[in-house]
Write a structure and sequence with these properties.
- With 370 residues, the protein is α/β, with parallel strands linked by helices.
- The protein has three domains: 113 residues, Nucleotidyltransferase, domain 5 (2-Layer Sandwich), CATH 3.30.420; 89 residues; 145 residues, no CATH class.
- It contains 14 helices and seven strands.
- Strands 3-2-1-4-5 form a five-stranded mixed sheet. Strands 6-7 form a two-stranded antiparallel ribbon.
- β4, α2 and β5 form a beta-alpha-beta unit.
- The protein is globular and about 80 Å long.
């Protein structure tokens, strides 16, 4: 008769802490600390089987972290069933708050596996992972560009140089920057900043073109085109949301989806007192921040009026998808203006729009657009 052993793994770059529990009795079958090598994990499992003189079926698990999906894939190749545990869903005893170390963490993970008190992280296929990493790389460069823009503006402010035009980083603004009458090291400093700005801008444009090409792959073309029917959702945004989530059907309803994105209000209630605070900010931060950016773009413009850009993106799509996207846009714009009229802070209103936009996106991806 096989014994089910739950193998908790507290993993780091250089070391693994392992703890195996008997699935029936809860007895600790073995504990060890080893180098970060999957072969040593397999040897540990084989040693437990020899010591207890019985066949063991292993269920391994580790917390989502720096190793990503790589360890999961390596363990699966070795024939070891493995889950990646979402940290925010795991049960943790009060003792872990007083005494915390790698050995206890491994035991805590094993107990969660044995008692099923966790939710596993969804593991996408390799192609989705590759596209996801490419998009995240582009977002890192966008953050660098934003930083350079801030540095240039700070430099100008320190020297009393203020642009009188309406918008920054337009053709006129860049021409003004390049024609400033500076001398010596000040001129050289600004030129270096602008060289960095130009280099990053060119790279981001190239990355965007590559993502445009990827969006026309068979597996992405239809869902991305449908998401683009929504105002505020361009190709890069649609690819980001679709690839980061990958399988929308794993969420039974919109409430589960928005909770995963950390867009639902947190709560701290006791007795008759009910206190709801800001959003939880748990789950996928990339999709959450992307939806907030989309919400900022969506609420602009006149309610019920579609721009030429949106009409162009909707061209060739099914009439029910277009109608659903238009209904979503109008509803969200009206909701935003209503909240602003009621005196709600703009950030609160935008977050509410992002949360409801996520619900409409879930409807498109799961084909529930009635």
């Amino acid at each position: 008769m096989k014994t089910i052993a739950y193998l908790g793994m507290d993993v780091h770059k250089d070391t693994f802490n392992l703890c195996a529990l008997d699935g029936t009795t809860g007895e600790i079958l073995g504990e060890t600390r080893c180098a970060s090598d999957v072969k040593l994990v397999k040897k540990f499992i084989e040693k437990i089987a020899r010591d207890h003189k019985r066949e063991i079926q292993v269920k391994a698990g580790y917390e989502a972290g720096c190793l990503g999906y790589s360890l999961h894939d390596l363990l699966e190749k070795q024939g070891i069933d493995c889950d990646i545990l979402a940290p925010t869903t795991m049960h943790s005893s009060s003792k872990n708050k007083v005494v915390k170390n790698d050995r206890l963490d491994a035991k805590m993970i094993a107990l969660n596996l044995a008692n099923n008190t966790y939710k596993p992280v969804y593991v996408p296929d390799k192609e989705d992972v590759c596209v996801k990493e490419y998009i995240r790389m582009m977002n890192d460069f966008k953050k660098s560009l934003k930083k350079v823009k801030q540095q240039i503006k700070a430099f100008l402010l320190r020297h009393g140089l203020i642009y009188q035009g309406k918008s920054s980083w337009t053709i006129a603004h860049l021409k003004w920057l390049k024609n400033l009458e500076l001398t010596g090291l000040l001129k050289e400093t600004l030129e270096e900043y602008l060289l960095q700005y130009d280099a990053l801008t060119d790279k981001i444009e190239r990355f965007s073109q590559r993502i445009e090409e990827l969006s026309h792959k068979r597996r992405y073309e239809k869902p991305v085109a449908q998401l683009r029917c929504l105002k505020g959702v361009d190709t890069t945004t649609a690819m980001t949301i679709h690839v980061e989530i990958s399988d929308f059907t794993r969420f039974p309803n919109t409430k589960a989806f928005t909770a995963y994105l950390g867009l639902t209000p947190s709560e701290h209630s006791s007795g008759e007192k009910v206190n709801r605070n800001g959003i939880t900010k748990q789950g996928n931060a990339t999709v959450r921040s992307t939806l907030v950016e989309c919400a900022n773009a969506l609420v602009k413009g006149t309610i019920g009026i579609k721009s030429k850009r949106v009409k162009a993106r909707q061209k060739g799509q099914a009439s029910e998808v277009i109608a659903y996207a238009d209904k979503a846009t109008e509803r969200l714009q009206r909701k935003y203006h209503r909240m602003m009229y009621q005196g709600k802070p703009r950030n609160v209103a935008i977050t509410a729009i992002a949360r409801e936009l996520a619900c409409f996106i879930w409807g498109i991806e799961t084909k529930q657009i009635d």
